[in-house]
Amino acid sequence: MSSQSPAPFTNPVIYLDYNATTPIDKAVADAMWPYLTTHFGNAGSEHFYGIEPKLALSLARRRVADLLAVEDDSTIIFNSGSTESINHIIRVSAFKQRQKGYGDHIITTQIEHPAVLETVRYLQRAPHNFRVTYLKPDKYGMIQPSALKKALTPRTILVSIMHSNNEIGTINPIKYLCAQTKQFNRNILFHSDTSQSIGKVPVYPQKWRIDFVTIAGHKIYAPKGIGAMYCNPEVRRCMPDDSSDTQSYNLLYGAKQEFGYRPGTVNIAYCVGLGKAAAMCQVALTSDHMATIRYLRDLLYEEIISNIPPQYHDKIRVNGHPYIRLPNTLSISFGFLRNTEITKRIFKYVACSTGAACHSGDVKLSYVLEACGVSINYGMGTLRISVGRYTTEKDVMLSAKVIASVVSELYSKQFSRL
Q1: Block means of pLDDT (10 residues each) for the chain, length 418 residues?
Q2: CA nearest 315: which of 289, 335, 330?
């Protein structure tokens, strides 16, 4: 797999917003097509038209399990995406843990995706009244084990910490954070939002003893509206033997699809697409593809800097950990500029983000950057640039020149007035 593969789109604007969403890979679309046409049947049907969809669903589930290095593919539950997974995991886990008498305390972080933050805020409010601790990251956006250790209490029932941050790319030491949690109390459930990490870096929930992780199809070149969650089989074994109570662990209620945990007629074509995308990501992770992605990300930064006059270099900073971050993500702050002024001039040529796309409508400092201690003078001039499978070296060189030209012009105008 190469980042030089022909893109499935021909728009003139260079796309550098792969953390927001990815285009559907042609191979993924091709794999889906038969299940939108010939094999349209319901996988739950006993007759001829249900046979092929049922087989395809099984293969798709196995492929997602293989990507996560999970032995039991029944731990993979297909759904509509990470927001549904997160709501399902956090809400159901919190209520069930409290029902068992384990406590009412949840730990998460200040820099989670809104799907996590809004869910725990819902649980925090009356009438539910769960207690919530929001861990502050260090200056790199990383959650330190020492911070988690201080927050754990005898009443802690659930910890939810993202694997990597969608804005700055910093990767948390999830394996150690989970181990620390389980060492404190093995009954505490551990969830990690891995939506941005899947397909970019290895994620091994079974090996790391993580109870729940989340997958979003549109982050790995599959369609929007399909995703999956991994559920630790040990957690499921703790459920009552009475199968009639299985759905008490559900967010939705209905028939018995997805082993009874996610009712609704299964979208076979989209599950097939997610499975194909997972298989392609597994190949990418075992090849030099991610090294190429990292090279393009670093080249982009170097070219931006080299095309900006040296007198402005001290006003430019990179956010996130310098080394322990996603290979495709560049969060760069141009101090004392407004990112809206930059994007107004570059969007004709380059598509990138001023933050996380799903909540970037407000013109204010990103809560992620604020939590990391980035001042408003730098935070308001931040661009999130993310390269991907179809990014070429030519794209990088042209984009760097466009961004550098605009930033240089804005700095020149600003400081000429002083």
Answers
A1: 68 96 97 97 96 97 98 96 97 96 98 98 98 98 98 98 98 98 98 98 97 98 98 75 55 86 93 98 95 98 98 97 98 96 97 70 83 96 98 98 98 83
A2: 335
For 6-44, b/e burial (b = at least 16 CB within 10 A) is ebeeeeeebbbbbbbbbbbbebbbebbebbeeebebebe
**What CA–CA distance (Å, rounded) separates 350 from 400?**
9
In 3D, which of 63, 14, 84, 11 has the Cα closest to residue 387?
14
Crossing angle, helix 289-306 and helix 393-416, to 10 degrees? Answer: 30
Question: What is the 3-class SS of 202-230, one letter each residue?
Answer: CCCHHHHCCCEEEEEHHHCCCCCCCEEEE
Residues 273 and 284: their CA atoms lie apart, in Å, by 16
d(CA 91, CA 245): 17
- Cα separation of 304 and 318, whole Å? 12
Is this model's pTM higher than 0.90 or not? Answer: yes
DSSP letter (8 states) at residue 258: G
Gap between the Cα atoms of 60 and 272, Å rounded = 5
Please say if 358 is a catalytic residue.
Answer: yes
Give the chain's end-to-end CA distance (angstroms, integer).
Answer: 51
Tell me the sheet residues that pair with 109. Answer: 135
Is the CB of residue 52 less than 8 Å from the CB of residue 301? no
Give the separation between CA 103 and CA 93, rounded to whole angstroms.
12
DSSP per position, 266-292:
--HHHHHHHHHHHHHHHHHHTSSHHHH
Virtual CA dihedral for 298, 165, 177, 198, nearest 10 degrees? -80
Q: What does the buried/exposed string (b/e) look like for 218-257 if buried means 16 or more CB atoms within 10 Å of the residue's CB?
A: bbbbbbeebbbbbbbeeebeeeeeeeeeebebebeeeeeb
Q: How far apart are CA 323 and CA 386, in angstroms?
A: 16
Set 231, 352, 358, 372: catalytic member: 358
Query: Whole-angstrom Cα distance, residue 83 to residue 119?
Result: 10
Q: H-helix or E-strand containing 98?
A: helix 82-99
Q: Which residue has the tokens 């539950």?
A: 77
DSSP string, 137-153: P-TTS---HHHHHHH--
CB atoms within 10 A of CB 207: 12
CB of 373 closer than 8 Å to CB of 396: no
